[in-house]
Design goal:
2 strands; about 550 residues; mainly alpha
Length: about 550
Amino acid sequence: MALDLSNVKKASSFKEQFTVRAMVIGTIGSIILTASSMFVALKASSLPWPIMFVTLFSMCLLKIMGNTNVNEINVTHTAMSAGSMVAGGLAFTIPGLFILDNNAQIGVLEIGVCTITGTILGLIFTSLLRKHFVVDADMPYAMGQAAAEVVVVGDEGGKSMGYLGGSFAVSGIWTVLRDKLAVVPAMKLVPGLANYGSMTGLWFSPMLIAVGYLIGPITIGVWFLGWVIGDIGALYLGQTAFGWTDVFASGIKSSLGLGWMVGVGFAITAKEIIPNAKNIFGGMFSKEAGKDAIVPMQWAPIVMLIFAILYIFVLDLPIVAVIITLLGVWLTTAMSSQCVGQSGINPMEVFGIFVMAIAKVACNLEVTQAVYVACIVAVASGLTGDVMNDFKSGHELGSDPKAQWIGEVIGGIVGSVVAVAVLVVLVKAYGGGVFGTEMFPAAQAAAVASVVGGIANVPVFIGGLVASVIVYFITPVFTMLGLGIYLPGYLTLTAVLGGVIRFILDKAAPKFSNARGGIIAAGLLAGEGFIGVVIALIQAIQILAAA
């Protein structure tokens, strides 16, 4: 449902939304958020979505300065958030090399090439893919939609502000009690299923409940069906009825889920991207052909060629691996856009693992080379998924996508430099052996390291891939099935709870659901998102002080 912008102050020109103060605030914010995101990703093995924090922070700061508008706020928070998922892509991959070998010799140049080139590739593909996924496909992008709602309500004030502020306060207080004071539990697992390797339960997250509410019952239902197939089918029935070992059952679940997600990526590319390739990617070769690109992209092939040379001579990647990496980024940025658009989840390390596995099999890559590939892909996919939320918010608010993209470039490049610097400082301060320990568990990086040898069950992976392609061409309804299969059950069932609430309200109180439900959900998202980042900043400062 389109936002009512009749009572808010909008920018009348490019200059009113892309301002010097917006970029100064965006740059400083990107530095702070990227640094904190690195610490959180390594410490907690997760990342709080930054969009709500940066939206509220940008809105408050610019309103204090005066004479602002909703579009300047939007451009500012786009710049601020860009570096956060770059940090995730790096933190979820490269530390895996140190987990495998505490004394691994990985230079700053190699880390920098992986991170900065992955960032720039993400920047290129966000420009090319935005129109298709944000405008034409019109996906929910729950976080981006909620951020736009927050900006509008914050500008209008009135009764809606009460609903927003109330849900924000509840969510924020809950997050403090859970993540900082530990007086309420983070999650509750089902003991019986846990015995079979299933992480089924509830994660007590207002944010994820709100995501489930915003994306709606149909998508949530498919997500839930994926959980049934993965956790009840593969893990529970596989071990109790078919006599599978826990390792074999887990391999079935992960391979099927990954295969389905990758298959959807191929299907989207074949059915939606390739038929529109001239408009989407034509900008890389002709100004006239690139109607969908935010800015002229004729320079992109030259940049990719330079990156290919860097990958060959700096990262020591074979030419075939370089080609697989660049094509993999093309595919996975589309997959990331789809995933985030429909579910709010961005499994960037999964995309990295997928491309890494293909490159390793095709070229017999060494472990270090394979992880480099995973890092490039994860950084590009992470950045793309995050910024698509910002573009959704901008689309709802009527922002100039060019202003947003330039802000994204500034924030993303700055963030990539900061992310590399933080990782290097940690290695210098603590040594590579700190990763995989209690101080920095780096669980995602450990997962990358554990599967560097390849996909657990290749036949099942291929079966899931083929099945998802066939099903997608029949109907796109089951797009998120693979995510439900792959993800831990506590994430799925928590989102399902939000979808169930939405279903009940739509039936029992449709007027309230339409008028206030989205605002309350936005407040829940904003509360946990904002406070989660604040807690992350505090943790980062404490770690730095201890070093």
